[in-house]
Design a protein that fits this description.
Helix content is about 15%, strand content about 25%. The chain has about 250 residues and is an alpha/beta fold.
Length: about 250
C-alpha cells in the first residue's frame, strides 16, 4: 500500500493569508501545506481520504484513474470543500463517497444539485453512502474500519485501512476504540501545534498517542503555522515520529 500526502495543513493552510511569520515566509517546500488529505493506492484500489477545498490542485499530482472510495472524516469545509471537483471522475461511473449520516446530510444540504432526482448535465455523479463507526467495508483489497474520535464534542471518523490508520482533527479518543488500532504498521494523526487547543491534539499529544498504541511509524498532519519550520520540528520529534509534508509518499504493508 502506498500513501501520498496530498495536504498536511490545518484549515487555513500554510502559509496563512496575511501572515508574515517565520514559517509562512519559509522558502522550504516542506513548509507549504495545503489542507489535509491523503491518496491511498494498492494494486487493486485507489482511495481518497477527505476532499477539501485544495483537492483540484492536489489531485493534479496523481495519475487520472477511477476513485474506488472517498472516505470522509467529517463535514467541516476544510475536509469536504472540494467534493464538487470530483466531477471529472464521473467518466468512470458514480464516485462512491462514505460518510457518517450527519456528514452525509450536510453534503446534501451544501451540494443539493448533486443529489437531485433529475440532475442537470455535468454535475458530479456521486454515490453517497452512510456508514457508522466499526461497520467495516471492503474496497477491493483494502479492509476499511471506521473508528470514532472526538473533535472537541463532535464525534467524527478516523479510518483504519489494512495496517494503516488515518486520524485527523482528534482531540480525544475513548478506550473502547483502541483495540481497532492494535497491530498498526503506520499511523497518520493530527498534531496542530505545541500550545493547547480546544478541539485538536498538540504535537506532544500526538506523540504520546503514537507511543500509547505502539505503532512503528507515525506521520503528523493537520499542522498550522504556529510551529517552527519543518526542518527544526522534524528533527526534534521522537524516534519513529515524523512531520509529514505535502507530496510525500510512504509505504505500508
Amino acid at each position: 500500500m502506498k500513501v501520498t500526502f496530498l495536504g498536511t495543513g490545518t484549515s487555513t493552510g500554510v502559509p496563512q493569508i496575511g501572515c508574515t511569520c517565520k514559517v509562512c515566509r519559509s522558502t522550504d517546500k516542506k513548509d507549504k501545506r495545503l489542507r489535509s488529505s491523503v491518496w491511498v493506492e494498492t494494486e487493486k484500489a485507489h482511495v481518497l481520504i477527505d476532499c477539501g477545498p485544495d483537492f483540484r490542485q492536489q489531485i493534479m499530482t496523481v495519475p487520472f484513474c477511477p476513485i474506488d472510495a472517498v472516505l470522509i472524516t467529517h463535514e467541516h469545509y476544510d475536509h469536504v470543500g472540494g467534493v464538487d471537483d470530483l466531477r471529472p471522475f464521473s467518466v468512470f461511473g458514480d464516485v462512491p463517497i462514505y460518510a457518517l449520516p450527519r456528514t452525509a446530510q450536510a453534503l446534501r444540504r451544501s451540494l443539493p444539485y448533486c443529489f437531485m432526482e433529475h440532475k442537470y448535465p455535468g454535475v458530479p455523479m456521486l454515490d453517497l453512502q452512510e456508514i457508522d463507526a466499526h461497520r467495516r467495508l471492503k474496497v477491493a483489497d483494502i479492509l476499511v474500519t471506521p473508528i470514532e474520535v472526538m473533535h472537541a464534542n463532535l464525534p467524527i471518523l478516523g479510518y483504519r485501512l489494512n495496517n494503516m490508520a488515518y486520524i485527523t482533527d482528534m482531540k480525544t479518543i475513548s478506550e473502547e476504540e483502541l483495540p481497532y488500532l492494535q497491530g498498526l504498521e503506520l499511523l497518520i494523526v493530527n498534531g496542530l501545534r505545541h500550545e493547547a487547543h480546544y478541539s485538536h491534539q498538540t504535537i506532544e499529544d500526538a506523540c504520546a498517542f503514537a507511543q500509547r498504541i505502539g505503532v512503528k511509524q507515525t506521520y503528523l498532519i493537520h499542522m498550522g503555522h504556529h510551529i517552527d519550520v519543518h526542518a527544526v520540528e522534524d528533527a526534534a520529534l521522537p524516534s519513529g515520529v515524523h512531520l509529514a509534508y505535502d507530496g510525500q509518499q510512504v509505504e505500508c504493508l
